[in-house]
Specification:
The chain is an alpha/beta fold. It is built from 19 helices and 8 strands. The two termini are 15 Å apart.
């Protein structure tokens, strides 16, 4: 690279993480403590053991990558643990200069009707943890005086693309029992619609910063268009939208997310520049289709939430950062936001993700500042547009200050 950036500078510069799964980002030591407190069985009760058996540096496939979520979701059905996990996640981000996060999770995975834990209780627990971290940080003298930008956050609620009839979570188990005469896909969509309606209600009636909708889970076999009505409801109620698209399926899934689900951002979007993954037989010129779609995305400034470590782990055939499609996103001037996906499962940080991206592409300071800016200009900020612009301006002025202090130009 002709432009080298120190770890200290990348850690100090203000950053945002817009693709951050709460249940994939626990501290390993906290997971052990929570499991012991809640009576959840783990395969190991040491950090080293969990890293060796569950949260590995590399995985054979997406299935192995997702294996650890059964443990994190189990402990997060305890509301004390859930609030603590949200608080810790904010603190971990602040420790490396991340001043804006959008925390996403599937609230229905944490609900337990047998213990009276409903949607509202889950959402308030997460918000309490994040709000407590925000109040502590923003109360510091340097933040109050404007020397450092304040910490802000939003919550993105995920509907699940699929789930099993038994063992997935108490909420889904009960739902299948109640709707046992219905087709599984109809039950899935009913749960998703219930979730988005409740999200809009809590945002509007109680002011919770629920800023967006997502769908998560296995992409193959569960296309975005099956959730069109759910996304239409969000769209009609001014709820912003992101979609896991192009992570494990071809570019046509990205097209669906944009045209049928009104996606404001794209989660992963990796396959946009892998035309060989297109499976729709109606698309005869795959390269031309991918080229035109990429141009459309760039022109519309639709941001892609890039999670490089996660992609390398769930798709080992990529091989290295240099082979990742981020370089094509960058060269095609697409708005990209560098994200972690899962800080625990991928054993990464936002700073490390920037280091990985910069190892693959030569990025001058102006373009690096643009990349940082996308995290604040393309976020789903809970305030109004005027407040969002003012916040982004403050953050980017701080970026210039940090660059000068580190002798970066």
């Amino acid at each position: 690279m002709s432009q080298a950036y120190s770890h200290a500078f990348l850690k100090a510069m203000p950053k945002a993480d817009l693709h951050l799964h709460l249940d994939g980002s626990l501290r390993p030591a906290s997971l052990i403590e929570m499991a012991q407190r809640s009576g959840v069985e783990l395969p190991s009760y040491t950090v080293e053991g969990l890293y060796d058996l569950v949260f590995k540096e590399s995985y054979q496939n997406l299935g192995e990558y997702l294996h650890g979520f059964q443990y994190t979701c189990a402990v997060l059905r305890d509301m004390e643990n859930l609030e603590q996990a949200a608080y810790d996640l904010a603190q971990d981000n602040l420790a490396e200069g991340v001043v804006y996060i959008e925390v996403r999770f599937a609230p229905q995975l944490m609900m337990d009707p047998t213990r009276g834990i409903d949607f509202d209780i889950v959402m308030h627990a997460v918000n309490r943890g994040l709000a407590r971290a925000q109040a502590e940080y923003n109360g510091q003298a340097e933040v109050r005086s404007g020397q450092r930008p304040p910490f802000n956050y939003g919550i993105i609620n995920c509907a699940m693309r699929m789930f099993g009839k038994k063992g997935f979570s108490p909420y889904y188990t009960q739902l299948f029992q109640m709707l046992r005469d219905h087709e599984p896909k109809d039950v899935i969509k009913a749960a998703a619609m219930e979730m988005i309606r409740a999200s809009v209600r809590l945002r509007d009636e109680e002011g919770l910063p629920i800023v967006g909708l997502d769908i998560a889970g296995q992409e193959m076999g569960y296309p975005a268009h099956e959730f069109k009505e759910v996304y239409e409801y969000a769209h009609q109620n001014f709820m912003l939208k992101t979609v896991h698209a192009g992570e494990a399926y071809g570019a046509e899934s990205i097209f669906e997310a944009l045209t049928l689900c009104y996606a404001d951002r794209l989660g992963h979007g990796y396959s946009l520049f892998s035309p060989e993954l297109i499976q729709d037989e109606r698309i005869t010129d795959k390269h031309e289709y991918a080229r035109r779609l990429a141009s459309f995305i760039a022109d519309r400034r639709i941001a892609i939430e890039v999670c490089m470590t996660s992609n390398l782990q769930t798709n080992p055939t990529i091989g290295s950062a240099q082979n990742h499609n981020f370089k094509h996103m960058y060269n095609n001037r697409i708005a990209t936001v560098i994200c972690t996906d899962n800080r625990l499962v991928s054993r990464t940080t936002v700073t490390q993700e920037y280091e990985l991206a910069l190892s693959a592409v030569d990025v001058p300071l102006k373009r690096l500042k643009d990349m940082v800016a996308y995290g604040f200009k393309k976020n789903f900020f809970a305030g109004d547009y005027i407040a969002k612009r003012a916040y982004a301006k403050q953050v980017l002025q701080y970026f210039d200050k940090v660059a000068a202090e580190h002798g970066v130009n």
